[in-house]
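Worked Example 4.2. Consider the chain below.
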Amino acid sequence: MAVRQPTLRGIPRKSPLGGYLYVIRFSIDVIKVGMSVSPAGRVRAHYGYSTGLGIPVTDLWISEPHEHAERNETQLIKFCCANAEQVNAREYFVGLGFSDVVRHAKTLPYVPAQCSTSAHDIPNAMRWRQTYDALRERIADGTYPPGQRLPSGLAICDEFGISPVTAKRVLTELRKAGLAEMQVGIGTFVTELPQPEG
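Applying the procedure from the previous section yields the following structure tokens:
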């Protein structure tokens, strides 16, 4: 029996008002949660990849854009980690009800951004720095633990609304700072912490 996927029509592209939280349920009862400043691209990527594997999306929820979407994503992931039977790749959860996750997401603080500047009005120098700072903060707070693969350049482009050249610069600067290392043909990973001698 074929599973009918929710429509992609009406999914927001970008907003000057902040990022969006999203919750996706796949036909195998796996929940994916995340945050993006450009949910249309991110959700389309999930649809395409999962459909190619024969695992269609069955439910989708996207928040309104808001200023603290990154913080709320962290809180939503913590909720899911505490309640899921199984956690995969940090943002995929087994054993959670879609409506329970959405209900919790709706309780998180919603603060519309006060800024009316679109991402395209921000100079490139500021955009790369904002992206770099956001990824550096995620590494520092353990959202991306040592050894974990960082998002691809394309995923960074989608999430932060930057160009591939800017995404490449961000990853290069993370490597220069010693926060990440590239494995050719595989990706960029958070640097492992040195083990104490003894």
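The first strand starts at residue 20 and ends at 26. Residues 29 and 116 are 38 Å apart (CA to CA). Compare this with Example 4.1 before moving on.
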